[in-house]
Amino acid sequence: MTDTGSLNLHWSQALIAGFIAAGVTDAVISPGSRSTPLALAMLRQPRLRCHVAIDERSAAFFALGMAKVQRHPVLLLATSGTAPANWLPAIIEAGQAGVPLIAISADRPPELQNCGANQTVNQTGMFAPYARAAHALGTPHAGFDPGYLHRLATQVCEQATWPHPGPVHINQPFREPLLPATPHIDDAIPAPVCQCPPQLASEATQVAELAARISGRPGVIVCGEMPGEPTLAPALAALAKQLGCPILAEPLSGLRFGPHDRSHLCVGYNRWLEGGVEGCMANPEWIIRLGAFPVTRNLQNYVSRITATHAVIEPWPRWSDPARRITHLFRAAPRDVCQALLAGITGSADAAWLEAFMAKEEGAAAQRQPSPIHIVLNSVAEGSALFIGNSLAIRQLDSLSGHNDKMLHFFANRGASGIDGNISTAAGIAAAHGQTVALIGDLTCQHDLGGLALARQQDLVIIVVNNGGGGIFDYLPQRQLPEFEQGWRTPQNIDFSHAARMFDLGYAQADSNEALQRALNKALRAGGAHLIELKQIEAA
What we know:
With about 550 residues, this protein is of the alpha/beta class. The protein contains 19 helices and 18 strands.
């Protein structure tokens, strides 16, 4: 093999074959010239599903959405220059949220670096603070060992998934010519590397010590966003029952909806914590936290007050303690810790402890009025995916969703909590999961209009709450400022019907709960991509 173009392609095919052997099934490609060898290798690999997205920022969030569902790395490819720089928001989100991504940027060869060559920037270490690992590869060279690239791909997949899932960056330079002189197809896949990641186990004496501390005493279990794990919910329910304590579960915990025991579940805490709590509820003696730190300020403040015994179960090597209250940290599988604690519990709290929380829950449920949140949750089918936008939408879901035995899968970009790329993420979720409903705000939609190009290919209903700008700021101190309307609320006066037509999405406008119900039912029955603009509906 003598011509550079054939060498580039053969090298790229070996690398992609390694990713296939390691279990990768999907790649998101943004068109470009310097990335041609890798794009060609991906497109000619029959065992790889390729998705093409023109906008690199949208492409990265689309890959993020797919990886959220699959919990396995998705490949991301872009050409050189500023193209990979557009990945940065999604790379940050993946790093913060623990989502596996493999970002491959094509690059100019070394002789074109630092000399003013066009479309050339320093791409090495571009994502260093947020990537789990980075690999700066050399240009393809004659006589290379394909086994090197096969094992590198396996190594990269492991780095993206264990011990803390997240993004890995590969920077791959190519010399011209980029195309092979003669057609060349090699779709052979090497034998996979047998990998056996360790199982994290808790120390028995530490579990026994915590069990002794909490047995018979009033406390709470608080669950934030967690990766889906079907066996965890029953283990948590059994532990709460044995302890006689409530579980304060956020919607992204995966605990609010499903057939498991929800008798100890609290979901109305935002309402009854708003003015503070009095009596015994104000002073739990212990807390067990799982998943990410809570979303809403009321629950954050309540959690932060508990200092005597503050246990966190966190298998990933991240420090989840913004309130600086941890007294016990378990680096182990949450289900295993719950089961081990269950075996060591010797008594439950006084019945009045749980009854006080349940009475608050009943009061919150009685005050809950019909809202767009309820319409969405009641309309979607069992097993559907729901993507919830940041700012106001996620907080309204937290306050208003309730809970029931319908199994639903909730997603949001809560790692860095940005409003960028939300439509693209929802489109990626739909591509990997199937029918998906996204509930986002008007500024969030405006921020990612380019994502509608990806949405139109999916079974996705996007509900845009058009409440005239940044509604979240109505609940923040900035609302007192005389510059509030201009600098924070920022009403946009946008008609999203034009965007829907531009990208060939079904469109409907609703100005009441009843109209939303009709529009959503029609869109779900029809399937495909739809945008429903919900005008000025305020949640209760």
